[in-house]
Structure formats: C-alpha cells, structure tokens
Amino acid sequence: MTILHLRRARTSLVLDARGPGLPRVVHWGGDVGDLDDDGLRHLTDATVPPVVPSSFDEPTVLSVLPEASAGWSGRPGLAGHRDGAGWSTAFRLDGLDVDQPADGPARVTVRASDPAAGLTVTIEITLDPYGLLTVRHRLRNDGDSAYELRELTPVLPVPAVATELLDLTGRWCRERSPQRHPWQHGAWVREGRHGRTGHDATLLLVAGTTGFGFGHGEVWAVHTAWSGDHVTFAERRPTGESTLGGGELPAPGEVRLDPGESYETPLLYAVWSDTGLDGLSDVLHTHLRARPGHPRSPRPVTLNVWEAVYFDHDLDRLRALADRAAQIGVERFVLDDGWFRGRRDDTAGLGDWYVDEGVWPDGLQPLIDHVTGQGLQFGLWVEPEMVNPDSDVFRAHPDWVLAVPGRLPPAWRHQQVLDLGRPEAYDYVLERLDTLLTDHPGIRYLKWDQNRDLTEAGHHGRPGVHGQTLAVYRLFDELRNRHPGVEIESCSSGGARVDLAILARTDRVWASDCNDALERLSIQRWTGLLLPPELIGTHVGPERSHTTNRVHDLGFRAATALFGHHGIEWDIASISAAEQTELAAWVALHKRLRPLLHAGRVVRVDHPDPAVWAHGVVDHDNTRAVYAVARLATSVTQLPGAVRLPGLDPGRRYRVRQVSGVPAPASIDLSPPTWLAAGLTLSGAALARVGVQLPALHPEQSLVLEVDAVD
Ligand code: DGJ
C-alpha cells in the first residue's frame, strides 16, 4: 500500500492508502507538481493535524468514508445496522488497484472490509483527463443476516481557505436560484425528498475563497448524480475539518441488503478551479462534451407547440404552425401534451398511450408526414411514469401506482405515479413507447416529462423511490437501446429533473417552464454552471410571458434564447409579418453562431452593477467569441462603466462589433458610444482588463457582440 498521486489537467488528488484503515484524501485541488515518494510522504505528514487538549490521543484523519472508529464525529460516511448490530465499522484495507494510463482517466479502486460488521466496501475514485473527479462506494453485505442501510455518502475534504458556500435552490418557474453565505460551523445540508431531482436541487454545491466570482477565486464543488431522493452537504467542524459530500437519501427500510447483496452509491462528481466558477464549468462542460453519447449533430432549432395550442389539438392549426415554422427556419417540431386517448385537459388520460381516435381520426401520421414533408424533424411529448386515475390503465390496474396500502398519495396535477418496480407495469409502459416509436418511425425525438413529486411512494408496502429511480433509468436505457436514433429531452414540470444521471440517458434538459426572458437569464446562467449550452433548451416565448405576465420585445427574448439549444414556444401562426421576419433573422443568427455556441468555453462577467449581466462563449482556439450584455433593471448610477469581455487570448487582437443581421436594441442615450457604429479592434488583454463602454440600454434589453481575431 502506498501514497498515490493522481494528476490530470491542473488538478491533483493525493491519497494516503498505506492503511491499515481506509484511505484518506491528503489533497484535492490544484496541481502540486511532480512529487517523488519522499515528497508525497512529506506532503502527507504536513497535513496530519496535531493532538489538541480534550481530544483523542491520536490525530483524527478523515477518510473518504469517515468512521467514528477513526475518531470522526461529523456526519458519518456510512449509517446502517444489522438489527442493532454492525452499526459502527472499522474497515481495514484489503487491496488497491491503480490504473494510471499516460492519457485517459486515472483510476483507483480500494477494497476494504470489516469482518466483525460483516461488510465489504469498494471505493472507486476516477480523475478524468480534464480534472473532473468522481467517487463512488459499493457496499456488500457479507454477513448472514440482513443489513439495513440508512446512508452511504462519499466525502471529500476542502481546505480552510474556503470560507463561503454557494448553492442553488428554486421552485417551478424559478429553478436554480443562487444562495450564498459564509461557511460556518455545522452542516449545510441540502436534502431532496421529492422522489425526483427537484426544482430546488442544487446542481453544484460550491465552497470557495472569500469573494469568489465567475472569473476569480479558488473553488471546490460537488454534484450528486441521482434523480431520486438525495443529499448534498458541506460540513465544517469546530475541530477544523471541512468537507463536501453527497449521496442518496433512502427512506427507513428502503435499502435492506440481504446476505450477499450490494448497494452502490450514485456518482459524486467533484471539481476544483482557481479561476472561479467559470473554471468549474469549463471542466464539467469539457467532461460532458467528451462523453461518447454526447449529442454531436447540430442541435435542431425547435418549435414546441405547448404555449401555442396547449391541449387544443387541431390538425389544420398544427399544420399551419409547421408551415410557419419551416418559413422561419425551424428544424424540429414537437407535439406536446394532449395527443393521447382521453387527454382533453390535464385531468385525464395519462397512462393511455394510444393516439386519441376522436382528435386524431387518421392518427398522428398525417401531421408527421406534413411536418417531415416541410423538412422538419418530428418530436412527441410523453410522460411515461405517470397515470391519471381517470384513465383506462388505472381503471384496469388500480394497484399499479406507488402508494402505501389502503390510500393513494395526495393527487398532484390530478395524477399518480406508476410503480415501475412492478414488472407488469414496467412492461406495459415499455411496450407502449416501443410500439409508438416502431409504428411511427417519423418520431425522432421524445420530450419525456415527469410532472409530480413521488409522495408516500410505496412499492409492495415498502419505500419505493430507490427502486423506481432505477426502473426509470432502465426504461430510458431499454428504449434508447431499441431506438438508438431517437433523441430524448428530460423535462420535469420544467426543470425538476436536471442531474448527470438523467443526462447520461438524455440529450438535453428543459430548464424551466418559464419562458420570460428576464427570469430565463438567471435560470440559464445557473443551469449553465453544470451544463454546456447545447444541453439546455432555450425557447423564444410570446411577447407577454404566460407564466409571469411580463412583456418583452422580441430582441430581448431572442438574445436570451440564443445561448442554448435554441427554439420557439409561441403561436407563430398568429404573429405579424414584421415579427416573422425578425424571428427568422434570430434563427438564422443562431444557426450561424451555433458551432461556436455549442462547442466553446462559457464565460460570465463579474460586473459590479448587479443590473448589468454579461456572458459569452469563446471558441477553443481563441479566434471567435460572442457576448451578450443584458440590462436587467435600472441602476442608480447612470452609466454602469465599461463591460469587460474576458476569456480571449490576451496577446491577440480582436475586432468587436455589434452582431449583424438582427435589429439593434432600443437604447436611451442620445448617441451611442462612438466605437459602436464601426466596431473596434483591441487586444484580448485590453478587452478583459478595460472592457468597452456600451449604449445605455433600456431595462430588459440585450446587446449581442461578435468578436473575431484579426491576427
Ligand atoms: C410540463 C412541461 O414542463 C411543459 O413544457 C409541458 O410539456 C407540460 N408539462 C405539458 O403538460
């Protein structure tokens, strides 16, 4: 056994695996250079704390699975018991596999056991080529009686220089709202008991040095990749240790391991940066883009008809929408909720996945043919995990829902959750979706919705969220296997299922049901902390937002929707000719910029005026960039100062100009900055350190700038 040093990109992980106990993370953070054995030993020694008064006689060192037997009195890495026994462990190291290829991810697998407790644990630690760390524990019951697992969470240490915490919360139509506070003693615990990821789930929990921002500060962050009940936490002990961790949150009795059975934690993703939050996103985005299954074809500009027609499905009206969409440059047409049997509103029909014969007497094929005939791809909405009590499937199988015996969970949008842990329910849904796709090869995209929490979600009398989550993953995987060409969107009452486990089986997320461009700026900014723009659906909504009643001009709506997987959710058949022309220009602009937007590095500007937001995307060889500057509200200061444009090569010169092809936003100054008319040429260093003065925009307006290297 040894001290291991994993080094990838600019990140180091030093692991003291000399035993006899579980390995300890000596360092997770910036690269510590090429250390020989002596160097690693000295680094390890340097991080062992002294013994202090009124404490254990030996220093307490924190392992990746903290145990009381090693002197840990914070949140336990493992909580569980065997009918009152085996509740405390002292794992001993049995073996270590290390795989450190010259390129590719570095991997360590640690095997440890506690024969007295009858448990074996396997810990997998991977540092990918971009500096992204993942940790996963697997626990096996080697005893001869059942072991009830309450919690098993990987934990990573963070140094004391991290003094502030940032995480995200939210609700329907206000997903991923940041909250920030000093990191004090105690545990900041973000628990999600929604049975799904949740509108309030923190995509990342970030700890950082005082005042960290998008472009500065040292930051450590974790993400718990699980779509059921889960916990992500930051803990600071009065004894001096600080940790980040996360895992599943099983209900009492939910994870019971019979002899020989194992439990595997979700992956805990961990990422470090010394260039602020943008540095975190950079590592995460690069990791996601390198996945073999990452969508690589140009992301089709999408028309989703939900806010255009809601449940009012009429073939002629939908055809007219498709015609208009084609004229505007749309590439994918998605028929939303309302096409299946009995679904005239949201009170009935879920579960009856047959085309409604009354509304669609000739089936969906005439619409599919019309849409594809216009050169657009066809997509369809489904909500496979749900059932309305007012449906044929529920009437025939009232026992197919997740519930405790004798009562149904409180209704939510008039619906209940199908118990996909029951093979017959699972098979039914799989057969319906499979048949739908087989019978309609024109369906190339599913908008997979999930519109309620799992409440009192019992499966045969026991808690069922864990099993349901795994069954849902199986359903996605099986369907993808049978229909590999069909893309899937993860939607969940807007953005309530955004996590890296669901994204392992889907091609984008619907970030929110709120298409109000002002709200969306924030939702997209913070969703983008984890996800690159091509995975985030961003649609141009109607002039008056359906969810906030705010009115925005088209330029602001379109400039906001530009920076994602672009689309439209608006009754474009009823818009004016001028709106149609302008919308088509924005769609064309998106298509022109798409290769940059969907592959480049995302930067967000730390501007001192909270009413001015700027963000951009810079391509990887620093030759091109696009930035948007948005005014969110009025400011006390008349002019907010020059806006810096970071992320470019400091030594190259760039031409900066207002983006062409779309109308300029209205501004309130008598004469805009002189440079704007003809553009200007400045070095990347000057753009990042000085920036440019911009027109005094009206509140809720955006200006888009295009930047090209000139040498
Ligand atoms: C919730 C989704 O978030 C919406 O986009 C829409 O698909 C509705 N469900 C349909 O019921």
General shape: globular
Detail the poorly predicted runs: none
Total discrete domains = 3
Number of beta strands: 38
Radius of gyration: 27 Å
- The CATH architecture of the largest domain comes to Distorted Sandwich
Q: For the residues shown, what is the average pLDDT?
A: 97
Topology overview:
Elements: E1 2-8, E2 11-17, E3 24-30, H1 37-46, E4 78-81, E5 92-99, E6 106-114, E7 119-127, E8 133-141, E9 147-152, E10 155-157, E11 164-169, E12 177-182, E13 186-192, E14 205-208, E15 219-225, E16 230-236, E17 242-248, E18 255-257, E19 262-264, E20 267-273, H2 276-289, E21 302-304, H3 306-309, H4 315-328, E22 332-335, H5 365-373, E23 377-382, E24 386-387, H6 392-396, E25 416-417, H7 423-439, E26 443-448, E27 458-459, E28 462-463, H8 465-482, E29 487-490, E30 508-510, H9 517-527, E31 536-540, H10 554-561, E32 565-568, H11 577-597, E33 601-604, E34 612-618, E35 624-631, E36 653-658, H12 675-678, E37 680-683, H13 684-689, E38 701-709
Parallel strand pairs: 21-22, 21-32, 22-23, 23-26, 26-29, 29-30, 30-31, 31-32
Antiparallel strand pairs: 1-2, 2-3, 4-9, 5-6, 6-7, 7-8, 8-19, 8-20, 9-18, 10-17, 11-12, 11-14, 13-16, 14-15, 15-20, 16-17, 24-25, 27-28, 33-34, 34-35, 35-38, 36-37, 36-38
Helix pairs in contact: 4-5, 7-8, 9-10, 10-11
(2R,3S,4R,5S)-2-(hydroxymethyl)piperidine-3,4,5-triol (DGJ) binds next to loops.
